[in-house]
Amino acid sequence: MRSLPLGLQVPGDTVWHRLPTGRKLLGLVLLGVGVVALQGPWLPLLALAAALGVALHAGVPARSLALGVRPLLVLLGVVAALQTWQRGWPVAVEVVATTLTLVVLATTFTATTPTDDLLDAVVRAARVLRPFGVDPERVALTFSLAISSIPVVTTLFTQTREAAKARGLERSPRATLTPFAVRTVAHAHAVGDALAARGLGDPD
After folding, report:
1. Could you tell me if 39 and 95 are in contact, meaning their C-beta atoms sit under 8 angstroms apart?
2. DSSP states of 49-60
3. Secondary-structure breakdown of the chain: helix, strand, coil percentages, each rounded to the nearest 5
4. For residue 111, what are the contacts with CB-CB under 8 A and spacing of at least 6?
5. pLDDT lower than 50: segments of the chain
6. What b/e string do you get for 94-118 counting C-beta neighbours within 10 Å, with b at 16 or more?
7. Backbone angles phi, psi at 192, to 5 degrees
8. Which pTM does this prediction carry?
9. 63-93: burial string, b at 16+ Cβ within 10 Å, e else
10. Which of 94, 96, 169, 181 lies at a CB distance of 3.0 to 4.6 Å from 164, suitable for a disulfide?
11. What is the DSSP letter of 127?
């Protein structure tokens, strides 16, 4: 598996599988806020180690997790180099560890939560905003599109990078990032056109 495992479903009976989806989603949000608030290199590294322990306990395959985050590591390597150059290595470690922790937590959440249960939880949470003009079904559709787009975008990046490598341009960021951006925007336009053709997104 070469794509991010955010769409991976791992059947099981661990405590992470048995937690109600709404509480688990709220816990993920609170954990995410807490992880982002951590300062320095060591606390984010401890948080990353704890997140990996949770993922393995939930049954997320270590090989799939490692292969799935590998494309992200390329981007994080560039970010780490820039942060080290501009702000020093502690900040670079903090940024990389925080990002990986959030990805691992999100992966564990989606791996232990059926997509239908997740969308139902989003709809229930969005209903409190209906008096303010928010359409819960439209929020769920947006959430569903975001989840389904993650592996698509990752696949586009992998295909674009492989194409650049085949031309001997694997060391040229422009040979990868420019066509990747063009293909990603084209995919977004195609999704938008498909939704518009079905009348989705139009005012009622």
Report:
1. no
2. HHHHHHHHHTT-
3. 80, 0, 20
4. 5, 8, 9, 10, 55, 58, 59, 60
5. 1-4
6. bbbbbbbbbbbbbbbbbbbbeeeeb
7. -60, -40
8. 0.67
9. ebbeebbebbeeebeeebeebeeeeeeebbb
10. 169
11. G
Looking at residue 146, its amino acid is: A
Contacts of 49 (CB under 8 A, 6+ apart): none
Q: CA 80, CA 93: separation in Å to the nearest integer?
A: 7
Q: What residue has token string 């991010």? A: 4
Positive or negative CA dihedral for 128, 130, 134, 138?
positive
DSSP code of residue 6:
G
Residues 181-194: tens digit of each pLDDT: 888 888 888 877 77
pLDDT at position 2 is: 44
Question: 28 and 36 in contact (C-beta within 8 Å)?
Answer: no
* Structure token digits, residue 173: 């960021």
Give 157-166 contacts, CB < 8 A, sequence gap 24+. Answer: 157/71, 158/2, 158/3, 158/71, 161/71
Q: If you search the block for the tokens 């040229």, which residue do you land on? A: 172
CA distance 118 to 20: 10
